[in-house]
């Protein structure tokens, strides 16, 4: 990484913000697991947050006139807590924005940084474009000459008119959850001896607070002597620098341990896994995998009855275009942020294994537990419980099933992957309605472009789509969120209204479309890959 990379980028960001957001402003600062290192300025644990980078941001914020910085204790205002709790912190503290130090997304470099805006949503493109422009012409870094701040304990440190407040990032969030979910109803479910669940934190930052909603209930029930499986309910819960030699991506390949547990003969009734920063999740029932598109649809269909916060209805829905044909929006979180600010965006599936429950709560495990608890609230001891699979299959019977699969080809050579996408774009541009691909008749083909209905923002090149007359879809994308090389993602979806076919394995039901997707793209020729790294 170039010398002073972080400091230059942070200054470019401050130069991009409206003056009122700098002068006497309040910012929130935090980091995720990827920035943990063994050595820290403060001996709070073996794996503390990268203190040096945090101190740089604090000093530059002071140099740019920011009045106050809020930091989670040990910088634990990670993405899990940040995305859930930022809106609450903003309301209480009138924060203008906040930084998340991450290992994914832009900008590049070994220590990535996000800037989230005042209501917690990712910074809009109008800001990120300015940041990039300023990085090309930056001539000075305004950095205050102040000592490092001890982030290991709560309290306020003042330097003249500038202050840094180290806060407990958990308490506000838990207080908020009490207003969203029926804690007592979920306690009644997880205290039943005939209901068991496992949450897999994948040795990532979510392990420190592995879905706080689950943990707080577990602790309370354990103290009362109700939950017999507390220590078995949280798997891989200790954050490790190398993720326990694993890959913290919650899918059927990298969360195989959890899959094996849920698919065992007498496995738990409910399972969930979370990725490295709590940003993506996977939901499982006993011997049953819930696809992301099904998950957000089921939550939305049941929210009004099962989640008290939504008793008056759900205001809005959003889901990334490749994951399902409905609720199409870009994969870029910046554009979901427009609805987020307006309070219109409450359920979302961003990318394939992430759902978001907003305005205040954006994780799906708690929502799913609420649904299961609501469906079983009148079940007496000994009666068969309504399962995750029962809820999903009932949804299919009502609305039909969208068979869905995603093929990921990780760490491909960038040159070949880019050539493949260019070839697909050219093929799509030359295609016309009525073209036949085996038994499939083309409705249209394009490179997805999205125009935001609220502010008119436009995002292009979001995925090459081939959509057929029966509603079947094939979508191709290159992902920039991997750790090395290029990741080619192929999304395959087909609607099936016939209930007698709903129990088919997705790979069986989609086999003709999968074969078409691979041949149409000439994926093997361009990438040299015989098979995908991950199948979802």
TrEMBL record:
<keyword id="KW-0119">Carbohydrate metabolism</keyword>
<keyword id="KW-0313">Glucose metabolism</keyword>
<dbReference type="GO" id="GO:0005829">
    <property type="term" value="C:cytosol"/>
</dbReference>
<comment type="subunit">
    <text>Monomer.</text>
</comment>
<dbReference type="GO" id="GO:0004614">
    <property type="term" value="F:phosphoglucomutase activity"/>
</dbReference>
<dbReference type="InterPro" id="IPR005841">
    <property type="entry name" value="Alpha-D-phosphohexomutase_SF"/>
</dbReference>
<dbReference type="Pfam" id="PF02878">
    <property type="entry name" value="PGM_PMM_I"/>
</dbReference>
<keyword id="KW-0597">Phosphoprotein</keyword>
<dbReference type="InterPro" id="IPR005844">
    <property type="entry name" value="A-D-PHexomutase_a/b/a-I"/>
</dbReference>
<dbReference type="InterPro" id="IPR016055">
    <property type="entry name" value="A-D-PHexomutase_a/b/a-I/II/III"/>
</dbReference>
<dbReference type="InterPro" id="IPR045244">
    <property type="entry name" value="PGM"/>
</dbReference>
<keyword id="KW-0460">Magnesium</keyword>
<dbReference type="GO" id="GO:0046872">
    <property type="term" value="F:metal ion binding"/>
</dbReference>
<dbReference type="Pfam" id="PF24947">
    <property type="entry name" value="PGM1_C_vert_fung"/>
</dbReference>
<keyword id="KW-0809">Transit peptide</keyword>
<feature type="domain" description="Alpha-D-phosphohexomutase alpha/beta/alpha">
    <location>
        <begin position="55"/>
        <end position="139"/>
    </location>
</feature>
<protein>
    <recommendedName>
        <fullName>Alpha-D-phosphohexomutase alpha/beta/alpha domain-containing protein</fullName>
    </recommendedName>
</protein>
<keyword id="KW-0413">Isomerase</keyword>
<keyword id="KW-0150">Chloroplast</keyword>
<dbReference type="GO" id="GO:0006006">
    <property type="term" value="P:glucose metabolic process"/>
</dbReference>
<dbReference type="InterPro" id="IPR036900">
    <property type="entry name" value="A-D-PHexomutase_C_sf"/>
</dbReference>
<keyword id="KW-0479">Metal-binding</keyword>
<comment type="similarity">
    <text>Belongs to the phosphohexose mutase family.</text>
</comment>
<dbReference type="GO" id="GO:0009507">
    <property type="term" value="C:chloroplast"/>
</dbReference>
<keyword id="KW-0934">Plastid</keyword>
């Amino acid at each position: 990484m170039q010398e002073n990379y972080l400091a230059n980028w942070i200054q470019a960001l401050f130069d991009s913000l409206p003056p009122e957001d700098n002068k006497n402003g309040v910012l929130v600062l935090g980091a995720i697991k990827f920035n943990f290192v063994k050595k820290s300025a403060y001996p709070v644990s073996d794996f503390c947050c990268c203190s040096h980078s945090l101190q740089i941001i604090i000093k530059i914020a002071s140099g740019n006139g920011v009045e106050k910085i809020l930091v989670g204790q040990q910088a634990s205002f990670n993405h899990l807590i940040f995305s859930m709790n930022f809106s609450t912190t903003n309301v209480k503290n009138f924060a203008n924005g906040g930084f998340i130090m991450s290992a994914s997304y832009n900008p590049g470099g070994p220590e990535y940084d996000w800037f989230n805006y005042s209501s917690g949503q990712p910074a809009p493109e109008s800001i990120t474009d300015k940041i990039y422009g300023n990085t090309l012409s930056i001539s000075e870094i305004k950095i205050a000459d102040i000592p490092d701040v001890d982030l290991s304990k709560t309290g306020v440190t003042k330097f003249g008119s500038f202050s840094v407040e180290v806060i407990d990032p958990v308490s506000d969030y838990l207080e908020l959850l009490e207003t969203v979910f029926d804690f007592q109803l979920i306690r009644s479910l997880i205290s039943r001896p005939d209901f068991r669940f496992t949450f897999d934190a994948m040795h990532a930052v979510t392990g420190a607070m592995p879905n706080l909603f689950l943990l707080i209930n577990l602790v309370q029930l354990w103290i009362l002597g109700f939950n017999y499986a507390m220590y078995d309910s949280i798997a891989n819960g200790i954050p490790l620098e190398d993720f326990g030699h694993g890959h913290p991506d919650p899918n059927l390949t990298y969360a195989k341990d959890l899959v094996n547990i849920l698919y065992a003969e007498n496995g738990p009734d409910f399972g969930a896994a979370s990725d490295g920063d709590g940003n993506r999740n996977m939901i499982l029932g006993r011997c049953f995998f819930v696809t992301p598109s099904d998950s957000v649809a089921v939550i939305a269909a049941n929210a009004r009855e099962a989640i008290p916060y939504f008793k008056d209805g759900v205001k809005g829905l959003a889901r990334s275009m490749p994951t399902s044909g409905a609720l199409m929006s870009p994969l870029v979180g910046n554009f979901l942020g427009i609805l987020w600010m307006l309070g219109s965006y409450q359920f979302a599936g961003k990318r394939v294994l992430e759902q978001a429950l907003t305005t205040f709560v954006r994780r799906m495990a708690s929502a799913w537990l609420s649904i299961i608890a609501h469906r079983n609230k009148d079940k007496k001891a000994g009666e068969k419980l309504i399962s995750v699979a029962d809820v999903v299959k009932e949804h299919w019977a009502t609305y039909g099933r969208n068979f869905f699969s995603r093929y990921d080809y990780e760490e491909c050579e960038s040159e070949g992957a880019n050539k493949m996408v260019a070839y697909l774009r050219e093929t799509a541009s030359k295609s016309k309605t009525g073209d036949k691909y085996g038994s499939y008749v083309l409705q249209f083909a394009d490179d997805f472009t999205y125009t935001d209905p609220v502010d008119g923002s436009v995002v292009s090149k979001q995925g090459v789509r081939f959509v057929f007359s029966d509603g079947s879809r094939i979508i191709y994308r290159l992902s920039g969120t991997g750790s090395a090389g290029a990741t080619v993602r192929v999304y395959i979806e087909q609607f099936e209204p016939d209930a007698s076919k709903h129990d088919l394995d997705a790979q069986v039901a989609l086999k003709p479309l999968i074969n078409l997707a691979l041949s149409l793209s000439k994926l093997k020729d361009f990438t040299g890959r015989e098979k995908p790294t991950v199948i979802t």
